[in-house]
Amino acid sequence: MAWALAVVKPVYESPIAAKSETVAAHRSVPAASAAAGPAPGSRKLLPPTQLLRAFVCTARHGSVAAAAEELHVTPGAVSKQLGELERWIGIALFERLKKRLHLTPAGQRYQAQIEPLLRHIEAATLELLGGAAPAGALVLSTMPTFGAKWLFPRLPAFRAQYPQIELRFMPYVKGYDFDDPALDCAIRYGEGPWPGACADYIVGHETTVIAPPRLPDALALKTPADVTRHTLLRHVTTPQAWADWCRQHQVEGVNAFAGPELDMVSNLVSAVQAGLGLALVPRCLVVDEIASGSVSEPFAERTWRRTGYSLCYPQAKASMPALQCFRQWLLAEAPEEASRRPAS
Q1: CA 262 → CA 281, 283, 304, distances in Å?
Q2: pLDDT tens readout for residues 266-300
Q3: Which of 65, 83, 138, 189 lies 20 to 30 A from 212 at CA?
Q4: pLDDT range class, residue 119, cuts 50, 70, 90
Q5: Which 3-state string (H, E, C) describes the chain?
Q6: What is the CA radius of gyration of the chain?
Q7: How does strand 261-262 pair with strand 137-142?
Q8: pLDDT tens by residue, 123-152
Q9: What's the pTM?
Q10: pLDDT tens digits for 49-62?
Q11: How far is CA 330 from the centre of its chain?
Q12: How many other CB atoms are found less than 10 A from the CB of residue 86?
C-alpha cells in the first residue's frame, strides 16, 4: 500500500520546532490514516505509556510547557512525544487556537477514555507495591485543611475502634471523580448535591469571623459594622460568603467582593495571623487557633451557612462494610451537628 504524505496544519509548536526537523516531521501523517484511523492489524494499537502520559498532561493543562513541568522533562521532549503519538495513531489530537492548545473532537474522546485508565494503572501499581489490599481497605480523599485540622487528629480513635480497616488516602486533586474505580469515598466541601454521589453532612455549617489577635484601637471590632475598616479575605469556593454575612448583619458601605481570594482555609488563617485582614471560616477548623490566641473571634454571634463538609460516595459502594463503619464513626464524631442532618 502506498502512503501519501500530506502536511497538516501544526497542532502545537515546540520551542525547538523551527530548529528541529524531527519535531516538524511529526506534523505529517498518512492522509488515508488521518481520515479513517488505524486499520486493524496495520499497526500496534497500544501506544507506549510515556506517550499517553504526555498526551493526558498536555490535554489537562492546554500547554506543552506546563505538561513538561509536571512530567519533569523538557518541552521539546513533550512535543516530540505528542508527535510520536499522533504519528502512531494517524489522527490529529490537538489544534492551536489563540496561542493555546485545544483538543480536537477525536482528542476529547481519547482523553476521556485514556485518563481514567492511567489513573487506574497508577492505583493498581501503588496497591501492588504496598502489598495486597486487605478486605477492610477503604480508599478516600479529603479536603486538605479539613484533614489536617479535624479528621487526622481523630483517626487514632478510629484505628483503635476498627483495627481491621486500613485507610488509604488518594491525593485530593484526583479524589473527587467517582468514575475512578479505585476511589471509595471523599470528604468534600460545599452545599451539594453532588451528581452521582450519596452525601452525609458531617460538620462545618457554623462559621465565624476571625481577626488578628491584636488590633489597634482605630481598627477595633466592637460591632459588625466595624468590618468595613478591614480587608475581607475570601475563599475561592465561597466568594459570596462575606456578602451574605454583611446582608445578615445589616452592614452597608463595604464591597464584600473586593478582598483577595485564597484557595485553602489554612491559607486564610495564616493571612489573618499575619494581619492581612479578616476571614469568615468554618469554626470547626479554627478551634485550636482561637483557644491559643493566635487568632481572635471578635463576635460572639456565629453564622449558619448551608455549605459544610460531607462524606460523599457512589451508591454502588454504599454497602461496603469498611465504608459503613467509617461513615458511622465519622457521624458520631460530630454529635453536636446531628440535629442539622436530614433524617436517614
Answers
A1: 12, 17, 21
A2: 999 999 999 999 999 999 999 999 999 999 999 98
A3: 189
A4: confident
A5: CCCCEEECCCCCCCCCCCCCHHHHHCCEEEHHHHHHCCCCCCCCCCCCHHHHHHHHHHHHHCCHHHHHHHHCCCHHHHHHHHHHHHHHHCCCCEEEECCEEEECHHHHHHHHHHHHHHHHHHHHHHHHHCCCCCCCEEEEEECHHHHHHHHHHHHHHHHHHCCCCEEEECCHHHCCCCCCCCCCEEEEEECCCCCCCEEEEEECCEEEEEECCCCCHHHCCCCHHHHHHCCEEEECCCCCHHHHHHHHCCCCCCCCCCCCEECCHHHHHHHHHCCCCEEEEEHHHCHHHHHHCCCECCCCCCEECCCEEEEEECHHHCCCHHHHHHHHHHHHCCHHHHHHCCCC
A6: 26
A7: unpaired
A8: 677 666 655 445 578 999 999 999 999 999
A9: 0.62
A10: 999 999 999 998 88
A11: 22
A12: 24
* Structural domains of the chain sorted by starting position, each given as residue range(s) with its CATH number in brackets: 5-126 (1.10.10.10), 133-204+307-340 (3.40.190.10), 206-304 (3.40.190.10)
Report the alpha-carbon distance of residue 9 to residue 4 in Å, rounded. 16
What cell numbers appear for 83 in the block?
A: 508527535
pLDDT (0 to 100) of residue 273: 96
Residue located via cell numbers 460516595: 313
- Cell representation of residue 9: 496544519
> Distance between CA 213 and CA 195 in Å, rounded?
41
